[in-house]
C-alpha cells in the first residue's frame, strides 16, 4: 500500500529486546515497555523522547539467557487508577516454568513498580526453553487473557497443545479480582469449560503452537491472535470461546504431516483467518497484531496489521466486515536491507495508532509519508 512509511521514534537510548508495550490506564499518557531481560520503562510516544524507569527486574532475570526465555508480557489492571495493580508474565529456571504474577505500583502521578508486593498467581512447569508464548492482556470483560505455547521442541512431542488437562498450547482466561477455592484467582463462570471435569477450567481456547500477540478489536471486542508456525505456515486466528485451532494435529490450514492420527478422534478444529507460507519465502515468524481502529490511517480501518520477525515485512490484511473473511493482503513496509529491523510486536498506542517494537531496541510508527 503506497503512502505509508515506517518512522523511528526518537529516544536517547535503546530498549533491549522490547517484547510488549502497555498503556498506563491513569490518564498520564505514558506507556510501559517490557524488555525481555527484565527492564521496564515508562515512555511517551509524542515525539518528546521522554522515558523513565518503571521496574528493574533484571536481578530476577539474571540467569535467564536463552533466546526465547525472559519477560514475555505486562498488563495493567483496568482499574489501575484506583488499585495500582498490574500483571507480569515471565520465565524462570530451576525448575523451568512460566510465572504469572501481580504487582502494585506507587500512587503518585508518575508511578513506579513496587517489586516487594509481587503475588504469584500461576506457575506453569515448562519441559523445554522455547515456545513459551506468554503474552497477556485484559479483555473488555475485565478478565485476564494469557497465551501459552506448547512447551517446545518440534512436532509438539508431548502432545500438550491438544491435551485438555494441561495449560500449554492454550489461551487462558482468569478473574484476578476473585478466588475459586484455594486458587489465587477465580474461574469466570462463563469460561467455556468451567463446568467440565475433563478440561482445565482456565482454558478459553486451545490448539496453539507459540501464540504471540493477543489483541482485542476496540470496536467489536473480538479476540485476535497470531500463532508462530513450524515448517510451513504462519497464521492469524480470530479466537472464539471453546474453539480448537488445531496444533499439533494441524499446522495452519492443513493436516500436519508428522502425526498420522489426531490426539482425539473427531476433534472439530477451526481454520485460521489467514495463513502465509514459508515455502514461498513470505516469512518465517509471525508477530501480531491488531485490528486497526485509529484515526490517522483511515484507509486501514478494520484491517489486521501484522509483521514477520525474520523478514521484517509489515502487512495489512483487509477483512470484509460482512463475512469476516480476508479480502486482500497489502504490504505496508518491506525491510530495507540496511536497517536492523526485526519486529517483536505490532501493537497500538493509547489512541489506537500502530506502534512496532523491534529487537534492535527501537520503536517505530506507521505514518502517512506527508506527515
Write the layout of secondary structure elements.
Blueprint: E1 4-8, E2 18-23, E3 31-35, E4 39-43, E5 51-56, E6 71-76, H1 80-83, E7 85-92, E8 97-105, E9 113-125, E10 133-138, E11 144-148, E12 170-174, E13 203-206, E14 211-216, E15 223-227, E16 233-239, E17 250-251, E18 254-255, E19 274-277, E20 286-291, E21 304-308, E22 314-319, E23 326-333, E24 343-348, E25 354-358, E26 363-368
Antiparallel strand pairs: 1-26, 2-3, 3-4, 4-5, 6-7, 7-8, 8-9, 10-11, 11-12, 12-13, 14-15, 15-16, 16-19, 17-18, 20-21, 21-22, 22-23, 24-25, 25-26
Please explain how this structure is put together.
β25 and β26 form a beta hairpin. The chain is built from 1 helix and 26 strands. The chain is globular. The protein has 371 residues and is mostly beta strands. It has a 4-stranded antiparallel beta sheet with strand order 1-26-25-24, with no helix packed on it. A 4-stranded antiparallel beta sheet has the order 2-3-4-5, with no helix packed on it. It has a 4-stranded antiparallel beta sheet with strand order 6-7-8-9, with no helix packed on it.
Number of strands: 26
Q: Biggest β-sheet, characterized? A: 4 strands, antiparallel
Binned strand content = 35-45%
**Total of helices:** 1
Residues in helix, %? under 10%
* Helix/strand class: mainly beta
Distance between the termini: 16 Å
Strand order of the largest sheet: 1-26-25-24
Morphology call = globular
Global mean pLDDT: 95
Question: Low-confidence parts lasting 5 or more residues at pLDDT below 50?
Answer: none
Radius of gyration: 19 Å
Q: What's the multimeric state?
A: single chain
SSE order in H/E notation? EEEEEEHEEEEEEEEEEEEEEEEEEEE
Amino acid at each position: 500500500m503506497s503512502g505509508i512509511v515506517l518512522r523511528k521514534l526518537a529516544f536517547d537510548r535503546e530498549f533491549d529486546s522490547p517484547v510488549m508495550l502497555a498503556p498506563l490506564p491513569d490518564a498520564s499518557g505514558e506507556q510501559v515497555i517490557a524488555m525481555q531481560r527484565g527492564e521496564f520503562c515508562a515512555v511517551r510516544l509524542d515525539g518528546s523522547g521522554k522515558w523513565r524507569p518503571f521496574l528493574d527486574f533484571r536481578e530476577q532475570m539474571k540467569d535467564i539467557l536463552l533466546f526465547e526465555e525472559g519477560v514475555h508480557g505486562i498488563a495493567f489492571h483496568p482499574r489501575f487508577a484506583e488499585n495500582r495493580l498490574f500483571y507480569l508474565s515471565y520465565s524462570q529456571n530451576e525448575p523451568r516454568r512460566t510465572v504469572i504474577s501481580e504487582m502494585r505500583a506507587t500512587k503518585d502521578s508518575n508511578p513506579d513498580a513496587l517489586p516487594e508486593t509481587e503475588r504469584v498467581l500461576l506457575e506453569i512447569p515448562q519441559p523445554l526453553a522455547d515456545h513459551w508464548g506468554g503474552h497477556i492482556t485484559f479483555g473488555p470483560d475485565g478478565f485476564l487473557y494469557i497465551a501459552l505455547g506448547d512447551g517446545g521442541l518440534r512436532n509438539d512431542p508431548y502432545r500438550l497443545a491438544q491435551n485438555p488437562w494441561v495449560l500449554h498450547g492454550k489461551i487462558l482466561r482468569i478473574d484476578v479480582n476473585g478466588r475459586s477455592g484455594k486458587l489465587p484467582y477465580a474461574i469466570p463462570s462463563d469460561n467455556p469449560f468451567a463446568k467440565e471435569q475433563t478440561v482445565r477450567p482456565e482454558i478459553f481456547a486451545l490448539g496453539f503452537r507459540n501464540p504471540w500477540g493477543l489483541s482485542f478489536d476496540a470496536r467489536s471486542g473480538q479476540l485476535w491472535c497470531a500463532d508462530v508456525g513450524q515448517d510451513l505456515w504462519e497464521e492469524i486466528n480470530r479466537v472464539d470461546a471453546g474453539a480448537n485451532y488445531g496444533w499439533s494435529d494441524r499446522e495452519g490450514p492443513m493436516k500436519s504431516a508428522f502425526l498420522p492420527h489426531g490426539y482425539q478422534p473427531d476433534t472439530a478444529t477451526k481454520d485460521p483467518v489467514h495463513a502465509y507460507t514459508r515455502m514461498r519465502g513470505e516469512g518465517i515468524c509471525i508477530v501480531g497484531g491488531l485490528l486497526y481502529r485509529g484515526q490517522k490511517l483511515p484507509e486501514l480501518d478494520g484491517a489486521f496489521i501484522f509483521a514477520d520477525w525474520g523478514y521484517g515485512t509489515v502487512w495489512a490484511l483487509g477483512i470484509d466486515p460482512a463475512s469476516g473473511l480476508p479480502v486482500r493482503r497489502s504490504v505496508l513496509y518491506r525491510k530495507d536491507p540496511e536497517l536492523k529491523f526485526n519486529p517483536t510486536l505490532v501493537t497500538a498506542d493509547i489512541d489506537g495508532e500502530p506502534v512496532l517494537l523491534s529487537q534492535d531496541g527501537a520503536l517505530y510508527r506507521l505514518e502517512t509519508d506527508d506527515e
